[in-house]
Amino acid sequence: MDKSQIRPGMRGGISSGRAEPAVFHTLNTIFMICLLVVTLYPFLNTIAVSLNAGNDTIRGGIYLLPREWTLQNYKAVFVSGTIYDAFLISVARTVLSTVLNVFLTTMLAYTLSRREYVFRKPITLIFILTMYFNAGLIPGYFLIKDLHLLNSFWVYVIPSMISAFNMIVIRTYIGSLSESLVESARMDGAGDFKIFLQIIFPLCKPVLATIALFVAVGAWNSWFDAFLYTSSKQELSTLQYELMKLLSSSMNSNSNPSVAAGAGMTKDSAAEMVTPLSIRAAVTIVASVPILLVYPFLQKYFVVGLNVGSVKE
Length: 313
What we know:
Strand content: under 5%
CATH topology of the domain at 81-238 and 287-302: MetI-like fold
Protein name: Carbohydrate ABC transporter permease
Order of helices and strands: HHHHHHHHHHHHHHH
Subcellular location: Cell membrane
Transmembrane segments: 21-44, 87-110, 122-142, 154-174, 195-220, 277-298
Keywords: Cell membrane, Membrane, Transmembrane, Transmembrane helix, Transport
Membrane topology: Multi-pass membrane protein
CATH superfamily of the domain at 81-238 and 287-302: MetI-like
Number of strands: 0
Shape: flat
């Protein structure tokens, strides 16, 4: 078409059509930047508070950078020698709980996903009922006691080896896999356990990575079970339980920090003072950093559809 034949209205339509994607990308970029700021600001603010002097934190106005830099808050967290032993206990319980929960729950989910298994529906119903009905804290405590798990490391691992919710999620994912994979493996003489280990388990990496992250975060952040079952045995205390006790003692000893800050304290002693707010920020960072270090290694498995193209119909 000759340029002279293009009417003014047509030129306007073409230019406006080209402008629409640019406007969309501009607004989308602004929105994503705002979302990024809203997401990162609480964490960056917590880091700034944890690195700021406790007496200065009381004044407020700490945003992205500390006003008075100090490591006193972290020194107060790590001054106790029990923190290091508790850290090792937390790492051990997190690793064991995650590995056993993922493997055993996946095995159960594969069993209940097989259509030829005649008891799969009633067993699934029983597991679903456990999500809605709970015996309560006291019966649970007596059950742990009867199993001789009190003041034992395995009280952190054994009760969490199977999860009904995780089983349903994994079973749903297994149900989306092509049945041709299992049928072809059976024709080659493979048994159920071999099919599970060599075919189903590798194909479930995306959902297993997600479940593993959920289980790991739950095991790492748990402290109430340590309070209930192992509080009388210091060597089995977890990191979260020790941090909770530290935060509680800090809040009790500094119940009125504004008075303590102005009660004739010298500049050096005031700089070394910790407050519940500063201790809480330091505890939050110490507790969250290990999980933040693990997350990037699991993120790549979150893409669903690893089995696309594995079967050619």
